Amino acid sequence: LDEQVSARTPFNTGVLILKSSPETLMLLDEILQIGRQLRRVNGHSWLPRLTGLWDQDAFADYINFRGKDRFVLLPHGELQTFVRRGQPWPSLDSIFALHFTGLSDLEPLQRVELVR
Question: What does DSSP say about strands 97-101 and 80-84: parallel, antiparallel, or unpaired?
Answer without folding.
Answer: parallel
